[in-house]
Amino acid sequence: MSKRFRFFIVLLVLVIAGVFLYPTINWYFMVPQEKKDIALGSREQIRNYAMSRAARELDRINELARLDSNADVPREYQFLVRKARANNRLTGRDMPSRWTIGEVLLSFGTQERVFRALEAYYRDEIFALQDRSNGIIQLGLDLSGGMSVLLRADMESLRERLGHAPSAEDRRNAIAQAIEILNTRVDRFGVTEPVLRSQGDTHILIEIPGAVDPERVNAFLMGAGGLNFHIVDDEATARAMAHIYEYGIEALHPDTGQPLDPTIIPAGVVLREFVQRDEYGINRVIRYVAIMEIPGLHGDHIVNAQVGTDHITGRPVINFILDREGSQIFAQLTSANTQRTMAIVLDNQVKAGATITEAITGGQVRMTGFGREEANALALILRTASLPFELTIESQQAVGASLGEDLIRAGLKAIMLGFILVVIFMILYYKGAGLIADIALVMNLFLMMAILSAFNMTLTMTSIAGLILTVGMAVDANVIIFERIKEELRAGKTAEAAVNMGYKKAFWTIMDSNLTSLIAVIFLSQLGTGPIQGFAYVLAVGIVCSMFTALFVTRLIFDFSLTYFGKKHLSISWRIK
Q1: What is the C-alpha to C-alpha distance for residues 17 and 10, in angstroms, rounded to an integer?
Q2: Bridge partners of residue 396, in order along the sequence
């Protein structure tokens, strides 16, 4: 392999590493802390930010228009010009020769439309920032602060539900279903999405970043799901909506949500909110629906639900399967209520409704009339009707953000101190060759951070310990190589021959030592959990990167210095000239 080709490989590796590391550098050093806090916050926080920011900017735009409507549009509002062009194309209006504040406002027509455009821009800006945060090195709870909850699944309740002792596959599937269900509850909890992962086949670990209320966390985790099918009373719904339209929301009881006038809906019927997700992913009350108080079918009877495609229309369809008992109940329910509406109710909120056109038997139900995104969301609701087993909180720990900042500073200080000491030692002991080793060490850390960023790995205190250990281990291979080169120089060989033989003799020694370490790390990552796995992953990445920089990068630097710069002697020891 020629030197130029090896140089090209190193350059390509550095460019790729830079691309992977840039999002992390951009996030932690270039994005304002205020925006990071909002992007990592709840959907309600993002909504409040976008709306308040839009209101402020609209006031400023109106003030600019009052001062001089013919003024140029400031650079920070150029996105409104693009929207204004689109508005003119839709309405057929001529494009102005020059876009001014007044022309932009005129193209929107109303203040409300300008406000919505501003809100959408700032909302999308935060959502884009949120997406960008998913491709960076994450900080663990011990560094960023938050709450860690370990849940234990009651396998006895799973056995009762299945009717037989659960197999290993049954337990894995139940854990996966429980994680899916808990994920769907994030919207109701209103926090930054937690990290959920299984711990074996009986435990679930949940990490919730930020300051959270333990009581609200418990309610979020231990809720029962509560999905049911109810028949809709269309006449009572019409009366209730007319009553609310006339008297406002004050016509409903603040606690129960039922009409204060008991004559609005008959006995055995209750009023429920019909909710849909808005642009922020937050459930919004669209209207109210009167449903039969007693559910026609409980969601526990749903075995599975998937989204398919109608072969004739190409539209998405929702297919869900009921167990034997549920099939019988559903057949009776649909046969007795044809041409009526059936509501899907989750936690006392109506999520969707469908008209019963005919009696449905056999336990296989097909629902149409939904868009693809809506169908996927509804299928998820149907699948996660209730937890497959009871959950108990085995441990619950909270870490303050201030403690995390102290740990980060201490960890960074330890890394820098170790790095500086290694750099100084290598230069003092190996002179010029030590400088080459230090360059390899810097590249080693750079590549490590790039790989951690590429795989979106979480950095914890144990991971930082792995980084610190890697700093010390990274020069081990260089020390072995340098000592072999010194032996060859003492034997009277030329600098180029000594480098060739030094690397050749040290190669298998370095490979054997690093491979055995790598095997130990692999076992550690498989047998360990949580912080131990983080330590193992970082150490594994460090071992691979140090082998590359020691055997490939430093050799390339030696070859360039001897071949292209014409050096005849190596600066590698105080006792060898």
Answers
A1: 10
A2: 149
* Residues contacting residue 215 through CB under 8 Å, at least 6 positions apart: none
Crossing angle of helices 495-527 and 531-548, rounded to 10° = 160
What gap in Å lies between CA 357 and CA 215, rounded to an integer? 44
Pairing status of strand 283-292 against strand 269-277: antiparallel
What is residue 201's DSSP assignment? T
Give yes or no for residue 190 having a pLDDT over 50: no
With residue 446 as reference, give the H or E element that holds it.
helix 401-454
pLDDT tens per residue, range 83-105: 999 999 988 888 988 999 999 99
Residues 6+ apart with CB under 8 A from 390: 153, 154, 157
395-428: burial string, b at 16+ Cβ within 10 Å, e else: eeeebebeebeebbeebeeebeebbeebbeebee
Q: Render 376-409 in DSSP notation, one character per residue.
A: HHHHHHHHTSS-SS-EEEEEEEEE-HHHHHHHHH
Encode pLDDT of 246-302 as tens digits.
Answer: 888 888 988 888 999 888 999 999 999 998 878 887 778 899 999 999 999 887 788
Mode of pairing for the β-strands spanning 297-298 and 227-231 = antiparallel
Cβ neighbors of 16 (< 8 A, separation 6 or more) are 450
Instruction: Provide DSSP, 131-176.
Output: HHGGGSPEEPHHHH-EEEEEEEE-HHHHHHHHTS---HHHHHHHHH
User: According to the 3-state scheme, what is the secondary structure of 307-327?
Assistant: EEECCCCCCEEEEEEECHHHH
Whole-angstrom distance between the N-terminal and C-terminal Cα of the chain?
30
